[in-house]
Amino acid sequence: MTMLDVEIRTAADHLIEHGYVRLPVVLSESQVARFRRLREQAVDDWRFASGVAERPAFVSGTLEHYPRAVLPVVARPVLLGLAEALMGLMVRLDSVVLAGAGPVDTGRRGELVGWHRDRFGCFPNGTYSRPLALICFIYLQPMTAAAGPLRVLPGSHRDPAALEAEQLVSSLPSEVLIDSHAGEAVVIHHNLLHSGSVNTSEDERQFLGHVYALTSLRAEDDSFDGPSCRALRTSARRTGDRRLARLLGDRRATRCATERGVRAATRSRVGVVEGPGRGSRPQARRRVQQRRTSAHGSGAEMS
Ligand SMILES: O=C(O)CCC(=O)C(=O)O
Questions:
Q1: What's the 301 CA to ligand 1 centre distance in angstroms?
Q2: Ligand 1 near 21 CB (within 6 A)
Q3: By residue range, what is the domain housing residue 144?
Q4: Low-confidence residues of the chain: pLDDT under 50
Q5: Pocket flag, ligand 1, residue 175 (CB < 6 Å)
Q6: In the chain, what is the straight-line distance between the N-terminal and C-terminal CA atoms, in Å?
Q7: In a domain, 301, yes or no
Q8: Which residue, by CA, sits nearest to atom 2 of ligand 1?
């Protein structure tokens, strides 16, 4: 087993048991700074396009608009590998957003935004079920008490514990506050009860949030159908990278994850590419490798 396999297996075990897991150092310090700048740019672009002055809490379509920054993060082997370990190989992106919450009065420190389950969530029946979606929050500042840490109720992805209406914005005895570092990812099962906390720091509280969902479920928040996403899909198909094609919503790539293909896995820009399909030969594979290099080269990685 590689170090990556061990990391993924350990993370998967934690998420199955508790409903969430922390993955440290998904973004470096300079990448965090770059994403904070990107959030400003995304907000400005959105305000310009919509002709409004207020700052949007969520800017979506970020893969379409900023593919060079966003693709390497959503396709990070540890994140996508974790999603596949928990959900099976049929994984696609559901949405990628840059989120921000402005500061509020410091007297409100410790207030919750509200307990909820995310899309596809339902009242659990007491047994673990594989996630239909995994939500990844990559926070872009240290999640101190002032910034407003994410709160989770461990085990609530499977326990049939009900909350009363008045508890929905209350801190609860079994909650865990996640004081993650900037650039750390927190990944949660779609059925986990969780809540943000209000931001009483001086800066905007920001995260890059993305969702992995089963390919059989319709993408609700993002069509991934603009020119950049289409070009990424075409390029993934051309280079035989079915894993990336699936991630980007290519329906044809959902028919190709045969056991044979998976066993023949080789390294690719996203970590693993499935083996050759019917009729491919070593020369064809070499050509694919060459094209893969020329298509994206080092440009796919963030500096
Ligand atoms: O603000 C946070 O930390 C979490 C946001 C959240 O719960 C959500 O987007 O579903």
A1: 27
A2: no
A3: 3-223
A4: 259-303
A5: no
A6: 29
A7: no
A8: 196
Residue type (1 letter), 20? Y
Of 188, 223, 258, the residue at which a domain comes to its end is: 223
Q: In percent, how much of the chain has pLDDT > 70?
A: 84
Ligand 1: residue of 137, 153, 169, 179 to mutate (most ligand atoms within 8 A of CB) is: 137
Q: Is the CB of 150 under 6 A from ligand 1?
A: yes
Q: In this predicted structure, what is the pLDDT of residue 96? A: 97
Which of 162, 192, 223 is the C-terminal boundary of a domain? Answer: 223
**Do residue 218 and residue 229 come from a single domain?**
no
Question: Do 207 and 247 share a domain, yes or no?
Answer: no
The number of domains in the chain is 2
Read off the CATH number of the domain in which 125 is found. Answer: 2.60.120.620
Q: Is the C-alpha dihedral spanning 109, 197, 168, 222 positive or negative?
A: positive
CA distance 168 to 230: 41
Q: Looking at the structure, tell me whether residues 241 and 161 fall in a common domain.
A: no
Shared-domain flag, residues 60 and 192:
yes
pLDDT tens figures, 95-139: 999 999 999 999 999 999 999 999 999 999 999 999 999 999 999
Q: Is the dihedral of CA 252, 254, 258, 263 positive or negative?
A: positive
Task: Say if residue 253 is in the same domain as residue 288.
Answer: yes
Neighbours of 261 (CB within 10 A): 17
Could you tell me the two tokens for 250?
């290519």
- What residue's CA is closest to ligand 1, atom 4? 196
Place of tokens 């069509």: 223
pTM for the model: 0.86
